[in-house]
Amino acid sequence: MDDGQLLRYSRHILLSELGVDAQERFAAAHALIVGIGGLGNPVAQFLAAAGVGILTLVDADRVDLTNLQRQILFDTASVGRPKVDAASARIAAVKAEVRVVAVPVRAGDTELASLAAGADIVIDCSDNFATRHAINRACVHAGKPLVSGAAIRFDGQVAVFDMRDPMSPCYHCLFGEGDEFEETRCATLGVFAPLVGIVGATQAAEALKVIGGVGQ
């Protein structure tokens, strides 16, 4: 790390649990973020600010006016743009040395298998069970750690599944594909704006802990 990087990340480096070693692991890491909405926005922002070297952003949607209530990487000028492009531009303006790969597709099993295989960690910020299960299958097959999050109304959840450990449970272990779960959407039930920030920031924290080898 050069002097500029040591200064930029000094508040991380001062933490005995992190130090220079963890910061260098952040810089060498490739994080795959699926879903660049309410959760994906803070996840991408915090991982970029923390110095994660490569971020792959996957989302087929365009920015809608209703997104601006909670999706903090976007502004009025972003409306109508692909979310991955608008998010990439904002990240580049703040953290030019982070490499951002924008993937403006609704990824299925084939795409997710390829994307997960090339990443060090996967963060699921999607908003439907079909995509969550597809992401889980890709992570199980590739043996990659998965940080899963969800938020609706005033309720949120975060779970970490480390598929590098063959004894680790996976998303399917909690929510089986044959089980009956009500599909919930912000468009119909609403979501408290700060909640997505809380859940997304927690996902980012858990992802950094996995990358840096911190905690359990």
Low-pLDDT runs of 5+ residues are none
Can you tell me the CATH topology?
Rossmann fold
CATH architecture: 3-Layer(aba) Sandwich
Give the overall shape: globular
Q: Give the CATH H-level superfamily.
A: NAD(P)-binding Rossmann-like Domain
How many angstroms separate the termini? 27 Å
The average pLDDT is 93
Q: What is the tally of helical segments?
A: 10
Q: What is the count of β-strands?
A: 6
Question: Percent range for helical residues?
Answer: 40-55%
- What is the gyration radius calculated from CA atoms? 17 Å
CATH class designation:
Alpha Beta
User: Could you say which structural class the secondary elements and strand pairing correspond to?
Assistant: alpha/beta
Would you kindly provide a written description of the structure presented here, covering whatever features stand out?
By secondary structure, the protein is an alpha/beta fold. It has a single domain, classed as Rossmann fold, CATH 3.40.50.720. The protein is 44% helix and 16% strand. The chain has helices at residues 3-8, 10-13, 19-28, 40-50, 83-94, 109-117, 129-142, 171-174, 186-189, 193-212; strands spanning 30-34, 54-58, 99-103, 121-124, 145-152, 155-162. A six-stranded mixed sheet has the order 3-2-1-4-5-6, sandwiched between helices. Helix 5 (83-94) links the parallel strand 2 and strand 3 (99-103). Helix 6 packs across helix 7. The protein is globular and about 50 Å long.
